[in-house]
Amino acid sequence: MRSTIRTMADTLTITDNRTGKQYELPITDGTIRAMDLRQIKTGSDDFGLITYDPAFMNTASCRSRITYIDGDKGVLLYRGYPIEQLAEHSTYLETAYLILFGELPSPKQLEVWTWEITMHTMVHENIKKFMEGFTYDAHPMGVFVSTVGALSTFYPDGKQIFDEHSRLRQIHRLIAKVPTIAAYAYRHSIGRPYVYPDNDLSFPGNFLNMLFKMTEIKFGVNPVLERALDILFILHADHEQNCSTSAMRGIGSSHVDPYSALAGAAAALYGPLHGGANEAVLRMLKEIGSVQNIPGFIKGVKAGEGRLMGFGHRVYKSYDPRAKVIKRIAEQVFEVTGRNPLLDIALELERIALQDDYFVTRKLYPNVDFYSGLIYQAMGFPVTMFPVLVAIPRTAGWIAQWEEMLLDPEQNITRTRQIYTGPKRRPYVPTAKRG
Ligand code: CMC
Questions:
Q1: What is the largest CA-CA distance in the chain?
Q2: CA terminus-to-terminus distance, the chain
Q3: Ligand 1 atom closest to the CA of 370, numbered from 1
Q4: Which of 93, 124, 267, 289 is deepest in the core (most CB within 10 A)?
Q5: CB 248 within 8 A of CB 265
Q6: Measuring CA to CA, which residue among 389, 374, 363 is closest to residue 144?
Protein backbone atom coordinates (compact mmCIF):
# COMPACT_ATOMS: atom_id res chain seq x y z
CA MET A 1 0.00 0.00 0.00
CA ARG A 2 1.23 3.50 -0.78
CA SER A 3 -0.19 6.48 0.95
CA THR A 4 0.33 10.21 1.26
CA ILE A 5 0.10 12.02 4.54
CA ARG A 6 -0.83 15.62 5.15
CA THR A 7 -1.56 17.41 8.44
CA MET A 8 -4.07 20.21 8.86
CA ALA A 9 -4.69 22.18 12.01
CA ASP A 10 -6.07 19.37 14.15
CA THR A 11 -6.31 16.46 11.78
CA LEU A 12 -4.04 14.21 9.81
CA THR A 13 -5.23 13.31 6.32
CA ILE A 14 -4.01 10.00 4.92
CA THR A 15 -4.67 9.15 1.28
CA ASP A 16 -4.51 5.53 0.21
CA ASN A 17 -2.94 5.88 -3.23
CA ARG A 18 -4.32 2.55 -4.43
CA THR A 19 -7.94 3.38 -3.83
CA GLY A 20 -7.78 7.16 -3.66
CA LYS A 21 -9.65 6.87 -0.36
CA GLN A 22 -8.94 9.54 2.22
CA TYR A 23 -8.95 9.16 5.98
CA GLU A 24 -9.17 12.04 8.40
CA LEU A 25 -7.52 11.26 11.74
CA PRO A 26 -7.96 13.67 14.67
CA ILE A 27 -4.75 14.93 16.31
CA THR A 28 -5.14 15.46 20.05
CA ASP A 29 -2.24 16.49 22.30
CA GLY A 30 0.15 15.98 19.38
CA THR A 31 -0.99 12.39 19.09
CA ILE A 32 -3.09 10.28 16.76
CA ARG A 33 -4.94 7.27 18.11
CA ALA A 34 -3.45 4.04 16.85
CA MET A 35 -6.96 2.54 16.73
CA ASP A 36 -7.96 5.21 14.18
CA LEU A 37 -5.58 3.50 11.75
CA ARG A 38 -7.63 0.31 11.91
CA GLN A 39 -10.13 1.71 9.41
CA ILE A 40 -7.35 1.65 6.78
CA LYS A 41 -7.26 -1.84 5.30
CA THR A 42 -4.16 -3.19 3.56
CA GLY A 43 -6.17 -6.02 1.96
CA SER A 44 -9.72 -7.37 1.90
CA ASP A 45 -9.02 -9.87 4.72
CA ASP A 46 -6.94 -7.43 6.77
CA PHE A 47 -8.44 -6.22 10.05
CA GLY A 48 -6.74 -2.85 9.63
CA LEU A 49 -3.44 -1.00 9.62
CA ILE A 50 -1.32 -1.33 12.77
CA THR A 51 1.91 0.42 13.78
CA TYR A 52 5.23 -1.36 14.30
CA ASP A 53 7.10 0.15 17.25
CA PRO A 54 9.75 -2.13 18.78
CA ALA A 55 10.65 -1.01 22.32
CA PHE A 56 7.75 1.50 22.16
CA MET A 57 10.04 4.29 21.06
CA ASN A 58 7.16 6.41 19.78
CA THR A 59 4.04 5.15 21.48
CA ALA A 60 2.10 6.79 24.32
CA SER A 61 0.40 4.02 26.27
CA CYS A 62 -1.51 6.17 28.72
CA ARG A 63 -2.58 9.60 29.81
CA SER A 64 -0.92 10.46 33.10
CA ARG A 65 -1.14 13.31 35.61
CA ILE A 66 1.79 12.19 37.73
CA THR A 67 5.22 13.04 36.30
CA TYR A 68 6.30 15.43 33.56
CA ILE A 69 9.70 15.37 31.85
CA ASP A 70 11.06 17.86 29.31
CA GLY A 71 14.21 16.11 28.21
CA ASP A 72 15.57 18.99 26.12
CA LYS A 73 15.26 21.52 28.91
CA GLY A 74 16.22 19.12 31.72
CA VAL A 75 12.90 19.51 33.55
CA LEU A 76 11.37 16.94 35.91
CA LEU A 77 8.10 17.71 37.72
CA TYR A 78 6.07 15.57 40.11
CA ARG A 79 2.43 16.67 39.93
CA GLY A 80 3.72 20.02 38.65
CA TYR A 81 6.35 20.62 41.34
CA PRO A 82 9.99 20.92 40.15
CA ILE A 83 12.23 18.18 41.48
CA GLU A 84 14.78 20.76 42.71
CA GLN A 85 12.18 22.42 44.95
CA LEU A 86 11.00 19.11 46.35
CA ALA A 87 14.60 18.09 47.03
CA GLU A 88 15.18 21.41 48.79
CA HIS A 89 12.06 21.62 50.93
CA SER A 90 10.22 18.32 51.04
CA THR A 91 10.72 14.90 52.61
CA TYR A 92 10.38 11.60 50.82
CA LEU A 93 7.18 10.77 52.71
CA GLU A 94 5.62 14.12 51.69
CA THR A 95 6.74 13.56 48.12
CA ALA A 96 5.33 10.03 48.09
CA TYR A 97 2.00 11.46 49.32
CA LEU A 98 2.13 14.07 46.55
CA ILE A 99 2.84 11.45 43.89
CA LEU A 100 0.14 9.11 45.15
CA PHE A 101 -2.64 11.55 45.96
CA GLY A 102 -1.91 14.49 43.63
CA GLU A 103 -1.37 17.26 46.20
CA LEU A 104 1.15 18.04 48.92
CA PRO A 105 -0.36 17.00 52.27
CA SER A 106 -1.75 19.51 54.76
CA PRO A 107 -0.06 19.32 58.19
CA LYS A 108 -2.89 17.08 59.46
CA GLN A 109 -2.78 14.84 56.37
CA LEU A 110 0.98 14.54 56.72
CA GLU A 111 0.64 13.59 60.37
CA VAL A 112 -1.89 10.83 59.58
CA TRP A 113 0.11 9.62 56.57
CA THR A 114 3.36 9.48 58.57
CA TRP A 115 1.59 7.63 61.40
CA GLU A 116 0.09 5.08 58.99
CA ILE A 117 3.44 4.42 57.31
CA THR A 118 5.26 4.18 60.63
CA MET A 119 2.68 1.72 61.98
CA HIS A 120 3.07 -0.61 59.01
CA THR A 121 6.87 -0.97 58.97
CA MET A 122 6.92 -4.39 60.68
CA VAL A 123 6.71 -7.50 58.55
CA HIS A 124 5.14 -10.83 59.53
CA GLU A 125 7.63 -13.06 61.35
CA ASN A 126 7.15 -15.71 58.69
CA ILE A 127 8.58 -13.29 56.13
CA LYS A 128 11.79 -13.31 58.16
CA LYS A 129 11.77 -17.12 58.13
CA PHE A 130 11.06 -17.13 54.42
CA MET A 131 14.02 -14.80 53.81
CA GLU A 132 16.30 -16.98 55.91
CA GLY A 133 15.89 -19.65 53.22
CA PHE A 134 17.97 -17.72 50.72
CA THR A 135 21.62 -18.69 50.30
CA TYR A 136 24.10 -16.69 52.38
CA ASP A 137 25.36 -14.73 49.37
CA ALA A 138 21.95 -14.13 47.72
CA HIS A 139 21.83 -10.84 45.80
CA PRO A 140 19.69 -8.40 47.85
CA MET A 141 17.71 -7.38 44.78
CA GLY A 142 16.79 -11.00 44.05
CA VAL A 143 15.68 -11.38 47.66
CA PHE A 144 13.74 -8.10 47.44
CA VAL A 145 11.90 -9.10 44.25
CA SER A 146 10.89 -12.49 45.66
CA THR A 147 9.86 -11.20 49.06
CA VAL A 148 7.72 -8.36 47.71
CA GLY A 149 5.96 -10.94 45.52
CA ALA A 150 5.49 -13.21 48.54
CA LEU A 151 3.65 -10.39 50.37
CA SER A 152 0.61 -11.18 48.20
CA THR A 153 0.26 -14.48 50.10
CA PHE A 154 0.31 -12.66 53.43
CA TYR A 155 -2.25 -10.06 52.35
CA PRO A 156 -4.92 -11.81 50.23
CA ASP A 157 -7.16 -8.74 50.71
CA GLY A 158 -4.77 -7.05 48.27
CA LYS A 159 -6.81 -8.73 45.54
CA GLN A 160 -9.67 -6.31 46.18
CA ILE A 161 -8.16 -3.79 43.82
CA PHE A 162 -11.40 -1.93 43.10
CA ASP A 163 -12.11 -1.32 46.79
CA GLU A 164 -10.68 2.12 47.56
CA HIS A 165 -10.10 1.37 51.26
CA SER A 166 -8.37 -1.88 50.50
CA ARG A 167 -6.15 -0.15 47.96
CA LEU A 168 -5.16 2.45 50.54
CA ARG A 169 -4.28 -0.29 53.02
CA GLN A 170 -2.00 -1.95 50.47
CA ILE A 171 -0.41 1.43 49.69
CA HIS A 172 0.40 1.95 53.39
CA ARG A 173 1.79 -1.56 53.64
CA LEU A 174 3.93 -1.32 50.53
CA ILE A 175 5.46 2.11 51.22
CA ALA A 176 6.14 1.10 54.84
CA LYS A 177 7.43 -2.43 54.34
CA VAL A 178 9.77 -2.09 51.35
CA PRO A 179 12.56 -0.49 53.46
CA THR A 180 12.20 -3.29 56.03
CA ILE A 181 12.44 -5.97 53.35
CA ALA A 182 15.37 -4.16 51.69
CA ALA A 183 17.23 -3.89 55.01
CA TYR A 184 16.57 -7.54 55.87
CA ALA A 185 17.84 -8.55 52.41
CA TYR A 186 21.04 -6.60 53.07
CA ARG A 187 21.54 -7.97 56.59
CA HIS A 188 20.95 -11.46 55.24
CA SER A 189 23.60 -10.99 52.53
CA ILE A 190 26.22 -10.07 55.13
CA GLY A 191 25.12 -12.65 57.71
CA ARG A 192 23.97 -10.20 60.37
CA PRO A 193 20.75 -10.49 62.43
CA TYR A 194 17.79 -8.56 61.12
CA VAL A 195 17.01 -5.31 62.94
CA TYR A 196 13.39 -4.48 63.76
CA PRO A 197 12.02 -1.08 62.71
CA ASP A 198 12.36 1.76 65.21
CA ASN A 199 9.16 3.80 65.09
CA ASP A 200 10.76 6.78 66.83
CA LEU A 201 12.87 7.45 63.75
CA SER A 202 12.11 9.14 60.44
CA PHE A 203 11.55 7.07 57.29
CA PRO A 204 15.20 7.31 56.12
CA GLY A 205 16.52 7.29 59.70
CA ASN A 206 14.74 4.03 60.45
CA PHE A 207 16.05 2.54 57.22
CA LEU A 208 19.64 3.41 58.24
CA ASN A 209 18.89 1.89 61.65
CA MET A 210 17.68 -1.38 60.15
CA LEU A 211 20.75 -1.53 57.92
CA PHE A 212 23.57 -0.54 60.20
CA LYS A 213 22.57 -0.99 63.87
CA MET A 214 24.86 -3.30 65.80
CA THR A 215 24.78 -3.89 69.58
CA GLU A 216 23.89 -0.36 70.68
CA ILE A 217 20.52 0.10 72.43
CA LYS A 218 19.49 3.00 70.23
CA PHE A 219 20.91 3.65 66.78
CA GLY A 220 22.32 7.17 66.39
CA VAL A 221 21.27 8.53 63.01
CA ASN A 222 23.64 11.02 61.40
CA PRO A 223 21.36 13.91 60.31
CA VAL A 224 23.42 14.72 57.19
CA LEU A 225 23.26 11.13 55.92
CA GLU A 226 19.59 10.87 56.89
CA ARG A 227 18.74 13.98 54.85
CA ALA A 228 20.97 12.92 51.93
CA LEU A 229 19.21 9.56 51.75
CA ASP A 230 15.82 11.26 51.94
CA ILE A 231 16.78 13.52 49.01
CA LEU A 232 18.00 10.52 46.99
CA PHE A 233 14.63 8.89 47.70
CA ILE A 234 12.80 12.03 46.49
CA LEU A 235 14.83 12.09 43.26
CA HIS A 236 14.04 8.45 42.50
CA ALA A 237 10.35 8.43 43.45
CA ASP A 238 8.99 8.39 39.89
CA HIS A 239 10.19 8.81 36.32
CA GLU A 240 7.08 8.35 34.16
CA GLN A 241 6.75 5.49 31.66
CA ASN A 242 10.14 3.77 31.93
CA CYS A 243 10.75 0.02 31.72
CA SER A 244 9.77 -0.90 35.30
CA THR A 245 6.77 1.46 35.41
CA SER A 246 5.50 0.04 32.14
CA ALA A 247 5.94 -3.42 33.69
CA MET A 248 3.91 -2.32 36.74
CA ARG A 249 1.11 -1.01 34.56
CA GLY A 250 1.24 -3.97 32.20
CA ILE A 251 1.16 -6.62 34.92
CA GLY A 252 -1.41 -4.66 36.93
CA SER A 253 -3.65 -4.46 33.87
CA SER A 254 -4.46 -8.16 34.36
CA HIS A 255 -6.00 -7.09 37.72
CA VAL A 256 -3.51 -9.04 39.77
CA ASP A 257 -2.81 -7.76 43.32
CA PRO A 258 -0.31 -4.88 43.68
CA TYR A 259 2.34 -7.02 45.43
CA SER A 260 2.63 -9.35 42.45
CA ALA A 261 2.68 -6.43 40.03
CA LEU A 262 5.32 -4.63 42.08
CA ALA A 263 7.52 -7.72 42.16
CA GLY A 264 7.43 -7.64 38.35
CA ALA A 265 8.29 -3.95 38.25
CA ALA A 266 11.20 -4.48 40.65
CA ALA A 267 12.43 -7.36 38.48
CA ALA A 268 12.50 -5.00 35.49
CA LEU A 269 14.50 -2.52 37.56
CA TYR A 270 17.03 -5.24 38.42
CA GLY A 271 18.40 -5.24 34.85
CA PRO A 272 21.73 -3.50 34.17
CA LEU A 273 20.18 -1.27 31.51
CA HIS A 274 17.74 0.19 34.04
CA GLY A 275 18.56 0.15 37.75
CA GLY A 276 22.10 -1.16 37.44
CA ALA A 277 23.91 1.72 35.71
CA ASN A 278 25.17 3.34 38.94
CA GLU A 279 27.03 0.13 39.72
CA ALA A 280 28.59 0.24 36.22
CA VAL A 281 29.74 3.83 36.88
CA LEU A 282 31.61 2.73 39.99
CA ARG A 283 33.27 -0.12 38.16
CA MET A 284 34.28 2.25 35.36
CA LEU A 285 35.76 4.82 37.77
CA LYS A 286 37.73 2.08 39.52
CA GLU A 287 39.03 0.81 36.20
CA ILE A 288 40.17 4.29 35.15
CA GLY A 289 42.02 4.36 38.45
CA SER A 290 43.48 7.88 38.34
CA VAL A 291 42.96 11.29 36.77
CA GLN A 292 45.99 10.82 34.48
CA ASN A 293 44.28 7.89 32.77
CA ILE A 294 41.19 9.90 31.80
CA PRO A 295 42.35 11.23 28.38
CA GLY A 296 43.19 7.67 27.28
CA PHE A 297 39.82 6.41 28.54
CA ILE A 298 37.90 9.17 26.72
CA LYS A 299 39.84 8.38 23.54
CA GLY A 300 38.72 4.75 23.85
CA VAL A 301 35.07 5.76 24.36
CA LYS A 302 35.19 7.97 21.27
CA ALA A 303 36.70 5.09 19.30
CA GLY A 304 33.67 3.00 20.27
CA GLU A 305 35.53 0.77 22.74
CA GLY A 306 32.98 1.33 25.48
CA ARG A 307 30.56 3.88 26.88
CA LEU A 308 31.07 6.61 29.40
CA MET A 309 28.71 5.14 31.99
CA GLY A 310 26.44 7.61 33.77
CA PHE A 311 26.35 9.79 30.66
CA GLY A 312 23.53 10.08 28.16
CA HIS A 313 19.82 9.39 28.52
CA ARG A 314 17.00 8.31 26.25
CA VAL A 315 14.90 11.28 27.34
CA TYR A 316 17.26 13.93 28.74
CA LYS A 317 19.25 15.68 26.05
CA SER A 318 20.65 18.14 28.58
CA TYR A 319 21.91 17.83 32.17
CA ASP A 320 19.68 15.41 34.07
CA PRO A 321 18.09 17.63 36.77
CA ARG A 322 18.48 14.82 39.31
CA ALA A 323 22.24 14.63 38.65
CA LYS A 324 22.60 18.34 39.50
CA VAL A 325 21.02 17.84 42.92
CA ILE A 326 23.02 14.68 43.59
CA LYS A 327 26.31 16.39 42.73
CA ARG A 328 25.49 19.07 45.29
CA ILE A 329 24.64 16.67 48.13
CA ALA A 330 27.70 14.52 47.40
CA GLU A 331 29.91 17.22 48.90
CA GLN A 332 27.80 17.28 52.10
CA VAL A 333 27.95 13.51 52.43
CA PHE A 334 31.70 13.40 51.87
CA GLU A 335 32.20 15.92 54.68
CA VAL A 336 30.79 13.25 57.02
CA THR A 337 32.10 10.06 55.46
CA GLY A 338 35.38 11.33 54.05
CA ARG A 339 35.88 12.09 50.40
CA ASN A 340 35.37 9.18 48.04
CA PRO A 341 38.68 9.10 46.12
CA LEU A 342 36.77 8.24 42.95
CA LEU A 343 35.06 11.66 43.08
CA ASP A 344 38.11 13.42 41.62
CA ILE A 345 38.04 11.07 38.65
CA ALA A 346 34.31 11.65 38.18
CA LEU A 347 34.65 15.44 38.34
CA GLU A 348 37.51 15.48 35.85
CA LEU A 349 35.67 13.06 33.53
CA GLU A 350 32.66 15.36 33.56
CA ARG A 351 34.79 18.47 32.95
CA ILE A 352 36.53 16.92 29.95
CA ALA A 353 33.40 15.32 28.47
CA LEU A 354 31.36 18.50 28.68
CA GLN A 355 33.98 20.29 26.54
CA ASP A 356 34.50 17.49 24.07
CA ASP A 357 32.82 17.71 20.68
CA TYR A 358 31.90 13.99 20.69
CA PHE A 359 29.75 14.38 23.81
CA VAL A 360 28.52 17.91 23.07
CA THR A 361 27.22 17.12 19.58
CA ARG A 362 25.48 13.96 20.82
CA LYS A 363 23.99 15.86 23.77
CA LEU A 364 25.51 13.48 26.30
CA TYR A 365 25.37 14.88 29.83
CA PRO A 366 25.69 13.28 33.26
CA ASN A 367 22.57 11.34 34.25
CA VAL A 368 21.22 10.42 37.69
CA ASP A 369 23.61 7.49 38.01
CA PHE A 370 26.85 9.39 37.49
CA TYR A 371 27.22 10.57 41.10
CA SER A 372 24.65 8.52 43.05
CA GLY A 373 26.86 5.40 43.29
CA LEU A 374 29.67 7.45 44.81
CA ILE A 375 27.34 8.64 47.56
CA TYR A 376 25.90 5.18 48.20
CA GLN A 377 29.38 3.74 48.43
CA ALA A 378 30.57 6.48 50.80
CA MET A 379 27.54 5.79 53.01
CA GLY A 380 28.62 2.16 53.32
CA PHE A 381 26.33 0.42 50.82
CA PRO A 382 27.74 -2.43 48.74
CA VAL A 383 27.05 -2.14 45.01
CA THR A 384 24.54 -5.00 45.15
CA MET A 385 22.28 -2.74 47.21
CA PHE A 386 22.20 0.03 44.59
CA PRO A 387 19.13 -1.19 42.65
CA VAL A 388 17.36 -1.88 45.95
CA LEU A 389 17.98 1.74 46.93
CA VAL A 390 16.11 2.81 43.82
CA ALA A 391 13.29 0.28 44.31
CA ILE A 392 12.40 1.63 47.79
CA PRO A 393 11.39 5.14 46.70
CA ARG A 394 10.21 4.05 43.25
CA THR A 395 7.54 2.03 45.04
CA ALA A 396 5.58 5.30 45.43
CA GLY A 397 5.73 5.94 41.69
CA TRP A 398 4.92 2.37 40.76
CA ILE A 399 1.81 2.27 42.95
CA ALA A 400 0.62 5.71 41.84
CA GLN A 401 0.96 4.67 38.19
CA TRP A 402 -0.76 1.35 38.93
CA GLU A 403 -3.71 3.05 40.59
CA GLU A 404 -3.98 5.62 37.80
CA MET A 405 -4.08 2.77 35.28
CA LEU A 406 -6.75 0.88 37.25
CA LEU A 407 -9.03 3.90 37.48
CA ASP A 408 -8.58 4.99 33.86
CA PRO A 409 -11.70 3.91 31.93
CA GLU A 410 -9.69 3.91 28.69
CA GLN A 411 -7.31 1.22 29.94
CA ASN A 412 -7.76 -2.50 29.41
CA ILE A 413 -5.57 -5.57 29.77
CA THR A 414 -2.30 -4.78 27.99
CA ARG A 415 -1.66 -6.71 24.84
CA THR A 416 0.50 -5.61 21.95
CA ARG A 417 0.29 -6.86 18.38
CA GLN A 418 3.01 -8.62 16.40
CA ILE A 419 4.11 -9.10 12.82
CA TYR A 420 4.31 -12.84 12.41
CA THR A 421 7.45 -13.93 10.53
CA GLY A 422 7.42 -17.68 11.30
CA PRO A 423 6.59 -20.63 9.02
CA LYS A 424 3.26 -20.82 7.22
CA ARG A 425 0.76 -23.52 8.28
CA ARG A 426 2.24 -27.00 7.72
CA PRO A 427 1.28 -30.58 8.62
CA TYR A 428 2.75 -32.30 11.69
CA VAL A 429 5.76 -34.57 10.97
CA PRO A 430 5.92 -37.82 13.04
CA THR A 431 9.23 -38.38 14.90
CA ALA A 432 10.36 -41.27 12.66
CA LYS A 433 9.97 -39.17 9.52
CA ARG A 434 12.02 -36.19 10.73
CA GLY A 435 15.39 -35.82 8.97
N1 CMC B 1 29.12 7.12 26.09
C2 CMC B 1 29.57 7.26 24.83
N3 CMC B 1 28.75 7.40 23.76
C4 CMC B 1 27.44 7.38 24.00
C5 CMC B 1 26.90 7.25 25.29
C6 CMC B 1 27.81 7.13 26.36
N7 CMC B 1 27.37 7.01 27.61
N8 CMC B 1 25.55 7.29 25.23
C9 CMC B 1 25.25 7.42 23.93
N10 CMC B 1 26.40 7.49 23.18
C11 CMC B 1 26.48 7.73 21.74
C12 CMC B 1 26.14 6.48 20.95
O13 CMC B 1 27.29 5.69 20.71
C14 CMC B 1 25.55 7.08 19.72
O15 CMC B 1 26.62 7.55 18.93
P16 CMC B 1 26.54 7.45 17.30
O17 CMC B 1 25.41 8.38 16.94
O18 CMC B 1 27.87 7.89 16.84
O19 CMC B 1 26.22 6.03 16.99
C20 CMC B 1 24.80 8.31 20.22
O21 CMC B 1 25.50 8.69 21.41
C22 CMC B 1 23.33 8.04 20.55
O23 CMC B 1 23.29 6.87 21.39
P24 CMC B 1 21.99 5.98 21.61
O25 CMC B 1 22.38 4.68 22.22
O26 CMC B 1 21.17 5.96 20.36
O27 CMC B 1 21.21 6.87 22.65
P28 CMC B 1 20.02 6.41 23.54
O29 CMC B 1 19.27 7.64 23.87
O30 CMC B 1 19.27 5.30 22.93
O31 CMC B 1 20.78 5.82 24.82
C32 CMC B 1 21.47 5.38 27.00
C33 CMC B 1 20.55 6.21 26.10
C34 CMC B 1 21.20 5.78 28.45
C35 CMC B 1 21.16 3.89 26.84
C36 CMC B 1 22.94 5.67 26.63
O37 CMC B 1 23.21 7.05 26.69
C38 CMC B 1 23.92 4.88 27.49
O39 CMC B 1 24.20 3.72 27.21
N40 CMC B 1 24.47 5.53 28.59
C41 CMC B 1 25.36 4.86 29.48
C42 CMC B 1 24.57 3.98 30.45
C43 CMC B 1 23.86 4.79 31.50
O44 CMC B 1 24.42 5.71 32.09
N45 CMC B 1 22.59 4.44 31.75
C46 CMC B 1 21.78 5.10 32.78
C47 CMC B 1 20.63 5.82 32.19
S48 CMC B 1 19.81 6.85 33.41
C49 CMC B 1 18.89 5.76 34.38
C50 CMC B 1 17.41 5.90 34.22
O51 CMC B 1 16.87 7.02 34.16
O52 CMC B 1 16.74 4.82 34.18
A1: 81
A2: 40
A3: 44
A4: 93
A5: yes
A6: 389
Q: Which long-range contacts (CB under 8 A, 24 or more apart) does 169-174 make?
A: 170/257, 170/258, 170/259, 170/399, 171/100, 171/258, 171/399, 171/403, 172/116, 172/117, 172/119, 172/120, 173/120, 174/148, 174/258, 174/259, 174/262, 174/395, 174/399
β-pair partners for 28: 31
Residue-wise pLDDT tens digits, 368-386: 999 999 999 999 999 899 9
The pLDDT score that the predictor gives to residue 89 is: 98
Q: Which atom of ligand 1 is nearest to the CA of 273?
A: 45
Amino acid identity, residue 410? E
124 catalytically annotated = no
For residue 148, give the amino acid letter: V
| Edge-to-edge strand ranges of the sheet holding 81-82 | 67-70, 75-78, 81-82
Given a cut of 70, whether residue 6 has pLDDT beyond it is no
329-366 pLDDT, tens digit each: 998 999 999 988 899 999 999 999 999 999 999 999 99
Let me know: does 358 contact 108? Beta carbons within 8 Å: no
How far away, in angstroms, is 204 Cα from ligand 1 center?
32
User: 122-145: per-residue pLDDT in tens?
Assistant: 999 999 999 999 999 899 999 999
Could you tell me if the CB of 282 is within 6 A of ligand 1?
no
> Which residue did the predictor score with more confidence, 314 or 218?
218
CA distances from 178 to 76, 97, 122, 153, 282 (A): 25, 16, 10, 16, 25
Nearest-CA residue for ligand 1 atom 31 is 314
Instruction: Tell me if residue 369 is catalytic.
Output: yes
